[in-house]
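## Example record

The block below lists the input lines for one assembly entry, exactly as stored, with component labels intact.
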Amino acid sequence: MNDNYITLNAISKHYSAKNGTVEALKNVSLSLPQNEIFGVIGLSGAGKSTLVRCINLLERPDTGEIIINRENLLNLGSEELRLRRQKIGMIFQHFNLLEQQTVLNNVCFPLEIRGIPRKERREKAMGLLEKVGLAEKAEAYPSQLSGGQKQRVAIARVLANEPDILLCDEATSALDPETTKTILGLIKTIHDTMGITVVIITHEMKVIQEICSSVAVLENGEVQEIGTVSELFVNPKSRAAKRLLLLEEEEDETYVG
Amino acid sequence: MQNLGIDVLFKGTNFVRLLSGLWVAVRISLISVIISIVLGLVVGALMTSKNRILKVIFRIYLEIVRIMPQMVLLFIVYFGTTRVFGWNLEAEVSAILVFSFWGIAEMGDLVRGALISIPKIQYESAMALGMDGKQIYYHVILPQTIRRLIPLSINLITRMIKTTSLVMMIGIVEVLKVAQQIIEANRRSSPNAAFGIFAVVFLLYFLICWPISKLSVYLEKRWS
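Predicted structure tokens for the full assembly:
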């Protein structure tokens, strides 16, 4: 077990916008152990998407270090980074499947890119589709699937690269509460059976509550609070965390009312 | 009912002459369309560049093409350059130059639009799968761009084919000019030929453009 499997060290990132610069991340440091389900919560604009994009360097931070398994990603050349990225899976809010390809081809796609022979990749992809419970939809097109099913395809596609880390960028935010639960359940099962470290970015406390063991609260590009999920719920210290919990309660009340 | 004047078509080699006129129109548009598509793809990619100077140059280019009637461009290139620069351009070369000048600009603008309509997240998710730049462009971006481009570029192509009828103004004998000549030559014997012959010209244009727009519908359906 490695207690500092993923370490972000003093990450800062700014964007130049029309009216001055936006500080998306200000000196963020995080460290999480292997095989954990780690949540990052914050309202929109808090910098969580930027943060998760820094982990696989879709965004390059201005300063700081990103260390995964004792290796600083910022020191990798572009080809090494590309290969490293194959082991850092990422799923998105809007799934981003190839719409002109069947479900099976979508899952085969990363294998094709890696040059795996056709027969082998089809077998492997079918196995993965079974794992996510969509084997019977192999020949369907993404447009014929529901949101939850599309996310399952995206998950199967990510698993094709046998990642050791899974990044979820608002992966359930386009789904209804029921489907959200089943997708989170699937992520949990994958985590438990394959030993993948999971980082979940969300604006919903429910997601954190459902699946994460530790959580960081992000606001205005700064980490406000970091700890276990139960700590956060029982005894939130930062204003940002309290506000998020309050928002959640209000939402629950409107459901009842 | 009055005589429709179609009989003139079968006098002598009239029909063959019409067809060879049609070939002239098709040849000019075909060459211009190919040049426009190939260079339009390049110009479109350049139009998405962040370089200020490039942007301004292409902006001006596109505006000129949009504002100037094609006929004026034809006159400038064919008559104008001869007087001012002493170039002796053949009429057909001038026509191809003008139509390509027009087509590259519009095609480029269509390509630009299709490229910037591909969301950034498409690049990101491809990168997250560990693909390199070439793979992303070839497997992810290009298929989506082409799909968006097809209906728009088919529209441009049929417009270019139709507009070749203007080249008779710089002395090229294409299908419409041949039709006029046939009608003029038979004015006394069959005064109604204007109807019949022009109707045939209409049909000929239709036969060229219709399969192209059918193809577009087919491709759109197949890829939707």
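Chain B touches chain A at residues 121-122, 124-125, 127-132, 135, 139-140, 143, 147, 223 (CB under 8 Å). Chain B has a mean pLDDT of 88.
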